[in-house]
Amino acid sequence: MNSNLSEEEFRAWNERMMQIHDNEAFHSTSNWLVRSLASQRVTEILRLLQSGPEDTALDVGCGAGIILNALNAREKTGVDLCTRMLDRARIRCGAQTKLVESSAERLPFEDHSFSRVLCSEVIGHVQSPENVVSELHRVLKPDGVLVVTVPASMRVVSIKKLLTRLKLYNLLLGSRKQGVYCPPANDDWYLHHFTPGSLKYLLERRFEVQDVSCIPNRLFSIHYIFHCRPKALPVEMQLPVAKLQPAVVPCHV
Asked: In Å, what is the CA distance from 233 to each residue of 37, 67, 108, 134, 138?
């Protein structure tokens, strides 16, 4: 995909991708492997986010609101660009949760609005990961906690291709069985592929990375989960996103 789309073009592309890649289905599929990985990721996110009854929490790219609904916080806010997913989140989370249709690259909130911020499985699907990280830092309180997750997408794509060549993909992921979600075998949704090293490089301009968890384990990781604290930035790095120049991010390292 062309990574220099207008906001309207990108929104339309994102809606198409969300029709193909149903992230909500990962949590409810009868395929035990897919469901187990999704459950482990959510459990570890909640552990690292350390959200409590006094916190104000923001989920950037909240999707259908599965993690947002599980958060323990005084105020909960979710942001997503996909209207269909926000409709699902409204049903799941109820009227007490604020839901906003917005790009992750330009969050409609004041500086330092939230004590806990989550951005899960989003940063590989945006046009400018640098702008997203800048916005995550801007809206997070100076003593707050950020949790960012990405899939080991290059590994996942390689596995999908191998299983497809061996004619095992549909069999193992159960798409031939009724009620079993089978993720698409292509990688058309990824605009950026991150390794732990390249994501850490991106985050460390604005955050102190305190911990990195691997799901299901460090020997064979499918998801990377970063636990971060914000850094105090020099004045020149505190410009609004609208004034930032496009940055080259080494996502393919």
From this structure: 36, 30, 21, 11, 10
